[in-house]
Amino acid sequence: MSPAALWRIARRDLNAGFRGLRLLFVCLFLGVATLATIGSLTASISSELTARGRVILGGDVEVAMTQREASAPVLAAMRQGTTGFSATIRLRAMANGPARPGTPGAVLTELKGVDGAYPLTGTLRLANGRYVPLAPDAVIVDRALAERLLLRVGDPLRYGTARFRVAGIIAEEPDRVSEGFTLGPVAIVSLDGLRRTGLVQPGAMYEAKYRLTLSPTASPTAVVDRLKARFPVEALETKTRDRAAPGADRFFQRLGQFLGLIGLAALVIAGIGVGNGVGAYLIAKRGGIATLKVLGATSRDIERLYLMQIGAVSLAAVVCGLAVGAALPAVIVAAVGDLLPVKPAVGLHLLPLLTSATFGLLIAYAFALPPLARARSMPAAALFREGVERRAGIQRRTVLRVAVAAAAIVALAVGTARDPLFAAVVLGSVAGVLLLLAGLGWAIRRQAARVPRPKAPLVRLAVANLHRPGAQTGALVVALGLALTLFVTLAAIQTSLDAEIARAVPARAPDQFVLDVPSDQRARFEALVKADAPEAKLNIVPSLRGTIVAYAGTRVADLKAIPDDAWFLRGERGVTYSAALPQGSVLSAGEWWPAGYAGPPLVSLDREAAKTLGLKVGDTMTVSVLGREIEARIANLREIHWETLGFNYIMVFSPNTLAAAPHSLTATIEMDDRHQGAVTRALLAAFPSASIIATREIIGQVRTILDQMAAAILLSASVAILAGIAVLVGAIAASRAARTYDSTILKTLGATRGQVLGAQAIEYALLAGVLALLALGLGGGAAWFVIVRVFDFGWAPDWGVVLGTLGAGAFLTLGIGLAGSWPVLSARPAAVLRRL
Fold it and tell me: Same structural domain for residues 181 and 88?
């Protein structure tokens, strides 16, 4: 038959409401919409970070250093060939506001001193007027700080030893995203005003940043290379406008990849629903297929005819999914735009939309081929007997076509992933789970045919339903197994994230962190704390910043790319020195240096960091501290208990290495809650340069981040659950014709609706009971991988909640199965018998 004639028949036969193929439409729509939404949102954020890189960074190039300002030669080299230059200094400091009821009095902030050229790019907007360079006694504050201290324009504010007047409320800070994570709201003063505070002292923890603007033809990368080549010992931290916020970009790329793979897994799961839906549709059409064959239609005609119908519905589902996926990011941005680092512009991103459409069409093709091949290859007489006769196997040609489609799906997923290995592992795991469930379904069907017949009629009927001709046991096992596994996975992920903060952190975390205590004031600091909190436990350590510039003879600057796990190679990290093994660490290799050690520099390294870099005890590494490179031998490796929220330094040096360097002290305090206010007031009065961080504020920020991550995972995985439910509905629909005939015969022989429904309930309950343990193992394993391997958190699920969720999920799927069986029970025996 000609394509035109086939399309004419296909169009006439296809119901306007896609009746019979609605499950195909819903499954593809859910999967494509999810993939397109995640891909479009991630692309929008990444594009915005790239497009606004110059404004976000505050220039074309940024050069930063910690605990020091640039020397005259470095400043001269930075200014060379630039069209603009701006210097800023940023540190944590306590803001002391006017005494007003309901205010904390002192608040930890990020204090930034800026010069008259700031900002070089972008606009610093104020809520109460236009920004002008600040006078030495003027300060502008973030809206959050104004709300906490009830500040108004003109109010006094004290930092260190200097008093300021609030000159404005910040509405938009152009370089906010590139500044990174902060522990408090921002306040901005002039550089002269910052020096009035007395907070910038040798050893104090501050960061100096220099922003440069270049001519349109100049290369930011060339400027960075020139500075690093000229000052290799300075360990300059640099950024360019092309990578203005690498941390934010890397986080959203990873999260987008992970959520995208969840969406792809949901689409693969929905593909099973596609296969079930197409199978049920073709079963309903078998009379027409047989009639067409009797009238002379070839098997190829049948395949092309129904492939046209399936293709039309699939194309409609993909188009609708793409429309939702393109529009939904704008809705998400409008709803939660303030939680994002940048507010992405609304627009179409063709690559993620095209990728999602390709995935959807390949999935539809791969899963629709097997049922279509059965209908294509069966003789007309066999089609009429299909309800009671086992189906023929799938031809080798069809298997080859499905394999090609599956290979294309895997190639596309791995080829477009940021981490191809991770993508391959996820897809391989999904395929493994599906094969395991399919094999279990075959085993259950085979075993059900061999067990002795139960005496109870309903139980005997339920067991027979598992292995009789036309039984959908395999599809039901896959559907129920997927649904229960997803319920377990979500419950284990959610409870582990809750336990990460609710149980582990508060039980072991200190109450306060105190930063920037002068190194020669240790005894006074201890005395002040003990005076107001005699029971307090103190842990005081020296605090410096350093950059790893070489290890085992390899310069970090010579690496083509820094591995994702080697995050400690990116920029400066906290370093300290200690005569004894630090709290929260366990020695795992080597020996600690003896008391009073005075030999060559030694360093203790985190065990995981050493594993990432391939280092061992005895190897060397070079660290730049305050612009001076120190080569030290690795004396030992430590296992660090990061969850304690104590001082967990990647690198701890022997005291003789850093004791003479300018530095400050950092302390943790564990004490009774009733003493915290008095201790805070005493310390701030004695040490104006000190900053005090309440642990509950850190825990609150971490909890917010974890809650947002859990919500994103839950929303994405809920699509997979909907797909799993769709698979269950499809499996029920595929067996509806056979079950209708069974129900009719049973009712003709005197069975009631309740008895027929009871037999089906027993059948589903038997399957759910068999699958519960398997779902617990598979779901627990998937959740462990997400929590431990992807997000690097502790594994601590609440098994009571997990088991409760598993039970609730079993009852839910059982209810869905019985609800799907209700139309079978409603069929009139006379009408059904006339169709036999």
Answer: yes
